[in-house]
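User: Some background: our group keeps a shared notebook of sequences we're curious about, and every so often someone picks one and asks for a predicted structure to add to the entry. Today it's my turn. The entry only has the sequence so far, pasted here. Could you supply the structure so I can complete it?
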Amino acid sequence: MERIIFTALFSCCLSGLMSGWVTFINLGITDTFLSDWSMAFIKAYPMAFVAAYGLVGSRASVSMCIPSPSYEEPYTSSVDTCIKRLICV
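Assistant: Of course. Here's the predicted structure to add to the notebook entry:
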């Protein structure tokens, strides 16, 4: 449930910003900007949700494979462990 809520909020913010930016680039600030932006958002949000939900697990697994810059503890994870995480998620 937490993953769905995070994905919904994340995709809402991202699709809102991107649809607003693309609407602004294409049309500029006009009298119908808010209605044009809202239509673009309504069309973009479902795809953004599906894409974010599908990618959120793999991005987390990939980021866990990146070694931390901490010099206190040596990096112990191997490439095999990272590949197993990617396949299992």
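Suggested note for the entry: DSSP finds three helices and no strands in the chain. Helices lie at 2-27, 33-64, 79-88.
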